[in-house]
UniProtKB/TrEMBL annotation:
Annotated family: Belongs to the chloride channel (TC 2.A.49) family. ClC-3/CLCN3 subfamily.
Protein name: Chloride channel protein
Species this chain originates from: Aldrovandia affinis
Bilayer topology: Multi-pass membrane protein
GO terms for cellular component: early endosome membrane; Golgi apparatus; late endosome membrane; lysosomal membrane; plasma membrane; synaptic vesicle
GO MF, one example: voltage-gated chloride channel activity
Amino acid sequence: MSADPYLPYDGGGDEIPLQEMPKRVSNYVMSNGGNAASSSTHLLDLLDEPIPGVGTYDDFHTIDWVREKCKDRERHRKINSKKKESAWEFTKSLYDAWSGWLVVTLTGLASGALAGLIDIAADWMNDLKEGVCLSAMWFNHEQCCWGSNETTFAERDKCPQWKTWAELILGQAEGPGSYIMNYFMYTYWALSFAFLAVCLVKVFAPYACGSGIPEIKTILSGFIIRGYLGKWTLMIKTITLVLAVASGLSLGKEGPLVHVACCCGNIFSYLFPKYSKNEAKKREVLSAASAAGVSVAFGAPIGGVLFSLEEVSYYFPLKTLWRSFFAALVAAFVLRSINPFGNSRLVLFYVEYHTPWYLFELFPFILLGVFGGLWGAFFIRANIAWCRRRKSTRFGKYPVLEVIAVAAVTALVAFPNPYTRQNTSELIKELFTDCGPLESSQLCQYRSQMNGSRAFSDAPDRQAGPGVYSAMWQLCLALIFKIIMTIFTFGLKVPSGLFIPSMAIGAIAGRIVGIAMEQLAYYHHDWFLFKEWCEVGADCITPGLYAMVGAAACLGGVTRMTVSLVVIVFELTGGLEYIVPLMAAVMTSKWVGDAFGREGIYEAHIRLNGYPFLDAKEEFTHTTLASEVMRPRQSDPPLAVLTQDDLTVEDLQNVINETSYNGFPVIVSKESQRLVGFALRRDITIAIENARRKQEGIMRNSRVYFTQHAPTLPADSPRPLKLRSILDMSPFTVTDHTPMEIVVDIFRKMGLRQCLVTHNGIVLGIITKKNILEHLEELKQHVEPLASPWYHHKKRYPPSYGPDGKPRSRVNNVQLISAFRESEEESEEEVHLLNGAAP
């Protein structure tokens, strides 16, 4: 198993994603690989009573999308056929039709309420590191001074009701002693919050760590991770997210809020059988929940829908788009009702710029896009290298010490700099804000304002004062600090998002560039660029706009989002007029980042953790064939199969006990070798146990048959066991000469876990999702191909054939051996032939 106790899956759990292929329902129609069935043909002879456990999925396995959709269609047909029988059946049909809207409504309500609670609690605990409100302990700094009549304009953040820790403990607000005391208390609270967060995660809910978006993407692609979206994970992630944000670590709460919303969607889906009993339908709810999570994280409901569509969802039908939109709407409405920011606005960083942008500013905007792409590529490589080192060394075995060490370094370095000491969201808000007469930030200390010779709003491009230059140095130090600490923070065993730290880095860089451009326009106003576009006595440059563009560029460079990111940013800030600069910067950052690697940070973490995720954005351009990727390879023994009526119960049990592979192709006979279907080891085991409990006469030497009618047996033979109901009669098949480009496309679009490779209807091998992922990884790393180029085998027969081109003789069963091996060994899928009947 994996060395990481928090992510116990390292790729071994889905070695053959064949395990949960349950029975197909009746009237199932499919045509592939030359197999076709009419709508009137029953592919399966269903049992009168369903076998308990058949059709369910084990942990760390992939669902069968085709079977789940087929099962949902059968359920829908059954409801429609009965709704005219009685009023009760009609009511049930209405309930079934509206259950989708009910579950997304509940998800939106819960997501908005939890997001508001997290925002309020995080703001209060973040201010607790600096002081406390004596009049009301539950007020944060801003709320404490709202009703004070003794607050001055120059010192608006100070009021008698708010006391710093130095004032409470030492009785003095100024001086070296008070600075040291505040420094100590700031570090103490930061370490306490971080320690409590990592302990809660380690003890109660290991899955509550990290961002959650890589796992959400994998789950939405059809993978099963039990407990990842459970109630314990939801509760612990909500609590520890507040603690992690309040500790001052370089992380955000926006990514984990998507995880929180998906936990709500998963829990509420169990209230409705339509979703609780169908894994594919449940993923439609999770797609809507992820949209609600982004909606409450940024106050961007439309951006949330686009984020779910562009970034996380694997299957996104039109009705899911509508329900995602509705879930995001409900969540945003609830958050607006709670009003956690106290500004009666839904947006997190509301901006109001009074000057338009000019065409010559596209050049610095594009430069910010280049910086965002370079930062994204550097961050992905550095963070993945550090996370890989954490997994492969003893350092990863002590997550509590790692969190404490990072929190201590963060607190000790962050406190002296006011731009790193404050909450990251507050820092971004300050960087986005345009300077006006009501701003007291150092970034707005221009000489024209200091002299008071002119009205501030009428001042042209302003000459920077000493406060601005001091702030520039502090911002440069804050930029270096944020870059370094974010690399080591993302991936800690606490809830940690990446949106806000990335936006902070871009906002700092953008504000620096914006101030530089502003001063350039002030000192060189006669240059043709400024002379052409700038009017005399008007502001040409808005540094806050540069901060906003830089934030979008850096976030785009890390995540490689485009459309959804632009929409999120303009919803986040209200800057609808500045879509073109945002689009230019985001597109540039994606191009630059893709030049160093097409993977975003979430795809990189998916690959690092070994999750079976086929990215639809990747292009397959190699000229390999299905016969070169299938198992067994040419150097392996030929594939063996089960015959449809020659086995006994003892034979099957011996195969099951001696192997750990989960799939068995079934053929007509040893002579014919034509493919009949595909049976799962797990379903066979469950069916045998169920038959022994409920059917008399099933013995070890009972004949097992997968046909419609029982074979002719002697009179003294024990009762045979019919397993046709668990046989997949229409497995996906491709020929051995099918290009892998088509096979990969089928796996992506159909959500397959495996397909069989045939030649003239005779099964030769199998291709699983893991085989495709291994093949893609080998091609990425420029490793030698699995076999010689395809044109070398153009006239060569597959290994299952003799030199004369005729099929070789086969035995009557197959062993598919697959086992979880130690994390340092790469699991290999092998197919072994039994030389004779199973003992």
